[in-house]
């Protein structure tokens, strides 16, 4: 993909990253969250070695971001992370999410992570298709797992097992 540079996500990206996160929240099919966290909460929740931004040619505009979080502090789950990926509405369909996902896969495999997982609303068909193309598989559906804007929502659970580490 030309015109996009993937690099580590730093505090100077915070405003744009959180703005993209809020745009995804506002669309209604990305997360149960209703408001993006402040930078301190985001920073604390995301693993430092596994968060990236996609920047435009000039390096000033964030087109999207990806970040991983631990799923448990139990040692048995040390190789399992959960991720989120969000793309600016104006940059969708350009391969930004796939480039970000590829960067996350490389960083997690280098760190010994054997499973990346995610939960996606079934209505988010673009994200489901992206993840399938990147080697994720559906492992189940959590039916009516939570209420979102007054409606019960299902969440499809996906995972990618590293072929290098399993």
Automatic annotation (TrEMBL):
GO terms for molecular function: acyltransferase activity, transferring groups other than amino-acyl groups. InterPro entries: Acyl_CoA_acyltransferase, GNAT_dom. It holds the Pfam family Acetyltransf_1. Keywords: Acyltransferase, Transferase. Residues 4-159 form the N-acetyltransferase domain. Gene3D superfamilies: 3.40.630.30. This is N-acetyltransferase. The lineage of its organism: Bacteria, Bacillati, Actinomycetota, Actinomycetes, Kitasatosporales.
């Amino acid at each position: 993909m030309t015109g996009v540079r993937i690099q580590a996500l730093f505090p100077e990206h915070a405003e744009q990253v959180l703005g993209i996160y809020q745009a995804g929240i506002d669309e209604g099919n990305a997360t149960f969250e209703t408001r993006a966290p402040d930078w301190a909460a985001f920073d604390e929740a995301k693993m430092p070695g596994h968060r990236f931004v996609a920047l435009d040619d000039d390096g000033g505009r964030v087109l999207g971001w990806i970040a991983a979080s631990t799923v448990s502090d139990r040692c048995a789950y040390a190789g399992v992370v959960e991720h989120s990926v969000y793309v600016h509405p104006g940059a969708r369909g350009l391969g930004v999410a796939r480039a970000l996902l590829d960067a996350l896969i490389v960083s997690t495999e280098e760190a010994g992570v054997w499973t990346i997982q995610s939960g996606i609303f079934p209505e988010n068909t673009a994200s489901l298709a992206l993840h399938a193309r990147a080697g994720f598989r559906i492992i189940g559906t959590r039916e009516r797992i939570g209420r979102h804007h007054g409606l019960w929502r299902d969440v499809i659970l996906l995972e990618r097992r590293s072929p290098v580490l399993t």
